Every structure is written in structure tokens, then in C-alpha cells.
Amino acid sequence: MLKQVQHDRYIMKKIWIIALNTFLEARRDRVLYSLILFSVIMILSSLVFSTISAEQYNKIVKDFGLTAISLFGVLMSIFLGTALVYKEIEKKTVYNIFSKPIERYQFVIGKYLGLALTLLVITLCMSVIVFLIVLYVELPNSSFIKYYYGGHYFGEFFAAVYFQYLEFLIIIGIAIVFSCFTSPVLAILLSFLLFAVGRFSADIRLFAEEVRNPIVNYFSEIIYRVIPNLEKFNIRSEAVYGGDISLSLILNTTVYALIYTAVLILLAILIFQKKEFK
Amino acid sequence: MLQVEKLIKDYSTGFFGRKTRVLKEVSFSVEKGEIFGFIGPNGAGKTTTFKSILNFVSITEGKITINGKPNIDNDLKTYIGYLPESPYFYDYLTGEELLSYMGNLHGVEKDILRERIDELLEKVNMAHARKVQLRKYSKGMLQRIGVAQALINDPEFLILDEPMSGLDPIGRREIRDLILEQKKKGKTILLSSHILSDVESLCDRVGVILNGVVVKVGALSDLYREINSDYELLLNCKRADVDKVVKTENISIDERAGFIVLRFDENKKKEVVNKILESEIEMISLYPLRKSLEGIFEEEARKKEKIEN
After folding, report:
1. Do the beta carbons of residue B109 and residue A107 sit within 8 Å?
2. Does B268 reach chain A within 8 Å, measured CB to CB?
3. Which chain B residue lies closest to A20 (C-alpha atoms)?
């Protein structure tokens, strides 16, 4: 029993070592910094609207901020995710990894977790920046209590950020699957395609219902069932204008995201397991 | 230590997965405590053999065992150190970070790892560049850090793919000393090379691979013995003196930098040398003209062709 526990801990440790190295790689990636810089500029550009009333302004900042987090988070997930495994094969660094006692599934999970950790840190940083801007604008003309009860929906704001992060988890999963068997350019295209279909899958289904063509209906149904419905993770309007975000919604969405992510990682492992490092 | 039996490897290439046979028949074994050189020209299948041993690629047919266990047993890698051919590493890591990462993947304990990193960096003369990112390393520096990472787990069995490539003469000597030191410690070493002089002073036995087939396994001296080598005899005398002493049929005579150089084959060696010693001619040196590795390969290929025909 004790041996089993030690063995499990040993396996987890290896995964964690790979994850931390992936995180370190992202931290030293210049492309990432330019993306972060762009997103901060986008968030700050909302200051242009600071001449209008503070209440309206806060809504704009939040909306802008959440959109920036979403846009750049998706870009980072896809760009970094599609290179995640491919780069190691292409640069032949896999030889260094797999000459050590590392299983292939440990590598895939480690790479995934490393990027998930990177995105977590970035998402947190960006949301804190947005939050601070809102506070900064409100501070001169409002009491402290009002931030929490004055219709700013900070709870909703952070719930929206959390949902957004769940979406990133799925997108990284999609990217890593493609990263296991195709070149980054194709992987990026396919990931964007799947992302777009995921964002519009409910609309595609609605459209198919209007068309009333059995073949179109059939395919839209497959798309709706197989491809994750990424619109589920969009609660931006609730965060900006207020709305009911129940605990059960949070739980359901979390489980939905985790199941999809697990399936995607499993798929990536199955593909990677068969890979020959020529 | 290592047994490779009738290894065959096919690669699928192109869109339709057309099969190319890269390894046709590879059989050899490496005994515990020896240095085994795997030699062959570029593209003969040395690296593919190593990749098969380390389970980077699946084998089409045949059997590979390490310490009696099939090579797909991942736990075996705890005892193996591997240096890839022209090593590629994470260029965003520093030398020290790379060694730490590789050691952690091996599960080396923290305190031991720290000590070993210091020790290895000293040993491969890279202590000065420990905090420098690998993207700034030269080819030779990468090779050195590659050797260091192969030793990070103090492995029982070292697999080094072209360990001397990219190194200057001093670097080569250092790596050779390092390999010999590992042998002294009782470690087993399998290394590949396409440069014969790298392996001749190092290996107990060699395997020669040609076009995906291991054509010969044995001590390098046996290999040399089998191939008749020419000799050069350097004499300090005049041309006419030589003519007086030895019959010049089957001997080529040259003048080089004021010396007379006789060139003959193994069969003539004894006769010519004895005659010269008996005469008054001053003998400067006698040395075998080793055939280059390519020469040996060509000869082996010719022999093989003859057998096949």
C-alpha cells in the first residue's frame, strides 16, 4: 500500500517536473510577452472613454478587459498549445526526455499542465489589472462599501474570468491533440476552426433547424454533440450588466470543461503513444 | 549487458506510407564493463539502431534486451545515460538548469543532484558557462553539456551517439579520458562513430555496420589484421643505396623531404626490413598505412558483393 502511494507520488512528481519546465519555457518566450503587452495596451486603451460617467466607464472597462482576456488567452492557448509537443519532436529534445524513465503519457500531461499553469498566471494577472483600473476610476467618487454593493458585480466579474479560463483549458486540449500529429501551421488552422465551430455550435444547430434538411440536421447534431459548446463559457454580459450566476451553473460548467479536457488529453496521449521519434 | 538479435527496422515514408528498410540485420552484444564501438559511414543505421535500443522507435522484427529485460521496460532507463547525435537541447535553459531538469527526470535526489551538477560541470570544463543560456553555446559546448547530462544519473550503461563530433582535438582527448574513466568505474559504454581514429584507442570491441547490416564484430586489431595494410619505411640514404640492397619489384620508391620512402605490403615487410637492417642504411621509421574507415567499408562491401554473387 505504502509502496503504491510512493509510486503514485513518483509518477506525479515527474509530470510536475515537465509541467514546471513548460511553464519556464513560456516565461522565457518573447512571443508571449508581446502578446501580453498587446492585451495590456488593449485594456488600457479603454481609458479613452474615461470622459463619460464613472458607472458607464466601469462597464466599458470590464467589457473591454474581459474581451481582451478572452481574445489574447485564446491566441496564446492556440499558438503555444500547437507548438507544445511538435516543437519537442522537431527540435529533437524528445530524445533527452525519453532516454530518461519517463512514460509518454506523463510527458503529454506534463506539457498540458505546464501551459494550463501559464494561462492561469496570465489570466489572473490580466483580470487583476482590469479590476485595479475599475477601482482606480471609482475611488475618487465613491465609498468603499459601494464597490461591493453598488452594482459593480465584482463576483460576477471573477466568475466570468473563471469561466473564461475553463474555455482556455479546452482550447489547450484541442491544440495539444493537433500538436501531436501535425505541423504548427496546420494545427493552428484546425484549432481555430474547431474553436470557431465551438463558439457557434448552438447557432449552427439553430440554423440547421431552420433549414429543415435532414442531412444538414444530422451533421449539425453531430457537431453540437461532439464539439464542445464554447458559448457555455461566455458570461460576459452577466459580469458587466449583472445576472444570475448560480452555484449549480458554475459546477455544471466546471464538470463539462473537465470532462472535455480529459477526453482531449486522452486522445493526445493515444496519438503520442504511437509516435516514432525518427 | 545489451543483446541485439536480428534487428530489422522499416520506416514508412511519404503520404502512402511506403516502407523503407533501414536496418536489415543488426546483431551484436555488448558485454558488461567493455567499451563497444559501433562504426559505420553516415546513413548506415547507427543512430536508428540506438533509437531502437532506447525504444524511441518500435522495432519491426528482432529482439533487444538490456540486462536480460526487454528494452521496452522503461525502468531500465534509470540505469542508462544517453547522448544524442549532435545534441539538441532547450535553448532557453542555462547549462545548470538543463542538468537539473535532466537529473530531476531521473529522480536523482536533490542534495546528490546539486553535488553532481558541480562535479560534472567541472569535469566537462563548462563551469564557467553554467549560468549561460544554451542558445549562446557553441557546438562544442553543447556536446560537452550533452555528455554531462548523459552522466547525471551516474549510469551503469552509457550510450553515446557520436560523442566526439563537433569537438576540437583537446575536446576529443577530454571526452576520451572521461569515457575511459567511466570504464574504470566498471561502467559499460556503447558509442558510435564514423571516424576510426576516435574509436581505435578507446574500444575493446567494435561492430561495423554497412547499409543496415552489421558485417563484422570483434576487436579492432583483428579487423586491421584481416585487411592487408601497406607499410611505409623512411630511410636516410640515397636512392642508389636502396637499389643495391633490396629488389625493388612490388615496392614503390619515393623521395620526400630528403628521405627515401619505400612503400610495400605486409608480405614484403619482413624481407625488406631485414635487408635494410643488415645494410648500413639508416632507418628512420616504419609505420603501417592504415586504411581509412571508408577503405575498410569499401573492402567489406566488395567482399559482401562477392559472396552474394
Report:
1. no
2. no
3. B101
* Nearest-by-CA chain A residue for B58: A276
The whole-angstrom separation of Cα B23 and Cα B167 is: 29
Q: Which residues contact A85 (CB under 8 A, 6 or more apart)?
A: A108, A111, A176, A179, A180, A268, A272
Chain B residues with CB-CB distance to A13 below 8 A: 107
Crossing angle for the helix pair A184-211 and A214-226, to the nearest 10 degrees: 130
* C-alpha cell belonging to residue B188: 559499460
**What is the distance between the alpha carbons of residues B237 and B243, in angstroms, rounded to a whole number?**
11
In a 13 Å sphere around the CA of B173, the CA atoms on its Cβ side amount to: 2
State how far the Cα of A232 lies from the Cα of B250, in Å rounded to an integer.
91
Residue from the list B55, B104, B159 with its beta carbon closest to the beta carbon of A17: B104
Cβ pair A101:B93 closer than 8 A: no
User: Among A28, A91, A100, whose Cβ lies nearest the Cβ of B77?
Assistant: A100
The whole-number pLDDT of residue B103 equals: 94
To the nearest 5 percent, what fractions of chain B are helix, strand and coil? 40, 30, 30
Which uninterrupted H or E stretch holds B25?
strand B18-30
Comparing CA positions, the residue from B190, B194, B207, B205 lying closest to residue B80 is B190
Q: Which residues contact B282 (CB under 8 A, 6 or more apart)?
A: B235, B236, B237
The ipTM (two decimal places) reads 0.83
B134 close to B90: Cβ distance less than 8 angstroms: yes
Domain ranges of chain A: 2-273
Interface of A with B in 27-56 (CB under 8 A): 28-29
At A49-86, the pLDDT tens digits run 666 666 677 778 788 888 889 999 999 999 999 988 88
Under the banding of pLDDT at 50, 70 and 90, the label for residue A178 is very high
Which alpha helices (H) appear in chain A, and where do they start and end?
A: 2-27, 30-45, 54-84, 86-90, 94-98, 104-138, 144-149, 154-179, 184-211, 214-226, 236-241, 247-273
Gap between the Cα atoms of A48 and B207, Å rounded: 74
The model carries a pTM of 0.84
- Mean pLDDT of the residues in chain B: 86
